[in-house]
Structures are given as structure tokens and as C-alpha cells.
Amino acid sequence: MKSVNKVILLGNTTRDPELKATVNGQSVATFGLATNRVWKDHTGVKQSLPEYHNLVAWGGLAEFCAQNVRKGKPLYVEGYLKTRSWDGPEGSKIFRTEIVLENLVLLGPRDGTEGLPEAAAEHAPIPGEEMRT
Fold first, then answer.
1. Rounded to whole angstroms, how far apart are CA atoms 63 and 66?
2. CA–CA separation, 63 and 8 (whole Å)
3. What is the average pLDDT score of the chain?
4. pLDDT digits (tens, 9 = 90+) for 58-79
5. DSSP string spanning the chain?
6. 101 contacts 33 by C-beta, under 8 angstroms
7. Contact, 104 vs 130, CB < 8 A?
8. What are phi and psi of 76, to 5 degrees?
9. Which end of the chain has a smaller Cβ tally under 10 Å, C or N?
10. Whole-angstrom Cα distance, residue 29 to residue 55?
11. Domains along the chain with CATH numbers
12. Nearby residues of 101 by Cβ (< 8 Å), 6 or more positions away
């Protein structure tokens, strides 16, 4: 039987990406994305519930994110769910579910440079341009 592990989100970043390198020199960027679920309740009043997602990008996509993604900016992302676990300080198991990015599209202002560092603004991609791993 086939299975599918695919995530597609459209939301706003909650923090600037944090770029690190593994012991093998592989780039990895982590940051957050907020989405909102909007609906009308049984009385017809509009309700909204935010959801926060942990994103992880690897390699060239991680470096692209570190240079071009900023807190509060809208993004379209595609990826898959991955859950990691480790032992906490009191011996309890800690779990964290993340979205490992495979595709990212910058959304927002037409010039695509608002909020970017000066060096990144010179090489900013066209908004809506896809960046794939």
C-alpha cells in the first residue's frame, strides 16, 4: 500500500532563519511559520486559530533561506513531516515534529528586497520564484 507524507503551507514567518552547519559541513536552517485557520462558528461569528510550524531546510535551500527569508514575510512552502526525539534533562523523551522543506516560494512586495540585508537585496530573487532542493 502506498502512503503520502506531503505538507503544503502558506503563512508568515515567525522568526528569521538560524543557519548552522553539521559536523560534516552541511548547512541547515531552522525557522518558524504561522498559519491561521478561519471559520464561522455555529452563531455565524468568524473565528481564527493560529498554528505554528517548525521548518527545516538543508544545503543550498538552507543558505537561500538564511539570505532571503525574514520574520513576518509571507511564504509558500512544500515539504514532508519528520519527527525527531531525544532524551530530556530529566530522562524523559522529547519529541518535535518538523517540516523538512523541499520547495519554497517567496511571496510579498514586487521588488522582493524589503527587509533583506543589503548584500542579499542585490541578489534578491523575483518574488514568486521557486527555490527547490
1. 5
2. 21
3. 86
4. 999 999 999 999 999 999 999 9
5. ------EEEEEEESS--EEEE-TT--EEEEEEEEEEEEEE-TTS-EEEEEEEEEEEEEHHHHHHHHHH--TT-EEEEEEEEEEEEEE-TTS-EEEEEEEEEEEEEE-S-TTS-TT--HHHHHTPPPTT-EEE-
6. no
7. yes
8. -110, 125
9. N
10. 8
11. 7-132 (2.40.50.140)
12. 55, 56, 57, 58, 61, 65, 77, 78, 79, 133
pLDDT tens digits, 14-29: 999 999 999 999 999 9
Give pLDDT, residue 111. Answer: 53
Instruction: Quote the cell numbers at residue 26.
Output: 552541511
| pTM higher than the cut 0.70 | yes
Count of residues in the chain:
133
